[in-house]
């Protein structure tokens, strides 16, 4: 869910290539066990967009919700 929401924001910001590079590095770090899955949070990719946080299973803030 984090990477999906990050991709939505990257498309909005036009920073898809930067995000793809960060996610690729994180996948490599996860596979090498240098990064824990719990460290994959939205703030890792977009520190200024902490609004995309799950409150409950069915409720979360979506910056694209009109």
Task: Provide the fold topology.
Elements: H1 2-13, H2 16-31, H3 42-45, E1 54-56, E2 59-60
Antiparallel strand pairs: 1-2
Helix pairs in contact: 1-2
Describe this structure in words.
The chain is built from three helices and two strands, in the order H-H-H-E-E. Mean pLDDT is 82; it is low at 53-58. A two-stranded antiparallel ribbon has the order 1-2. With 66 residues, it is mainly alpha-helical. The protein has helices at 2-13, 16-31, 42-45; strands at residues 54-56, 59-60. Strand 1 and strand 2 form a beta hairpin. It is globular. It has one domain (2-60). Helix 1 runs antiparallel to helix 2.
A few lines on this structure:
By secondary structure, the protein is mainly alpha-helical. It has helices spanning 2-13, 16-31, 42-45, and strands at residues 54-56, 59-60. The chain is built from 3 helices and 2 strands; from the N terminus they run H-H-H-E-E.
List keywords for this structure.
66 residues, 48% helix, globular
**CA-based gyration radius:** 12 Å
N- to C-terminal distance: 20 Å
Largest sheet, if any?
2 strands, antiparallel
Structural class: mainly alpha
The shape is globular
Count of β-strands: 2
What is the average of the pLDDT values? 82
């Amino acid at each position: 869910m984090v990477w999906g929401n990050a991709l939505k924001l990257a498309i909005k910001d036009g920073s898809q290539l930067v995000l793809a590079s960060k996610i690729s590095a994180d996948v490599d770090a996860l596979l090498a066990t240098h990064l824990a899955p719990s460290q994959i949070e939205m703030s890792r990719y977009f520190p200024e967009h902490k609004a995309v946080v799950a409150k409950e299973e069915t409720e979360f803030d979506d910056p694209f919700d009109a």
